[in-house]
Design brief:
Elements lengths: L4 E4 L1 H4 L6 H16 L3 E4 L5 H9 L4 E2 L10 H11 L8
Parallel strand pairs: 1-2, 2-3
């Protein structure tokens, strides 16, 4: 299977804003993913501090309770449609 996504485990994200070792490890994983042309996803983002640090380090994606609890398809669909501008591509 081709690998195109690299995930940073939530155990490294949990204290990223307090633990220099976790921060340096996350930075290294992000740099490695970028150098390999992979998308990097941080798992377990639970607060704004974590998200801010990840954004500063150019982590492309994040997932976790801070962003959203798990949703059913219908609830996700409703949330998605509220946050996406509708574009008329027929013109």
């Amino acid at each position: 299977f081709p690998v195109n996504v690299l995930k940073i485990d939530k155990s490294f994200i949990k204290d990223i804003h307090k633990n220099k070792g976790d921060l340096e490890l996350a930075k290294a994983i992000i740099a490695m993913g970028k150098s390999l042309g992979m998308e990097v996803v941080a798992e377990g983002v639970e607060n704004q501090n974590q998200l801010t640090i990840l954004a500063q380090e150019k982590c492309q994606q994040a997932q976790g309770y801070y962003l959203s609890r798990p949703l059913s398809f219908d609830k996700f669909h409703d949330l998605f449609n509220k946050n996406v501008k509708k574009i008329d591509i027929s013109a």
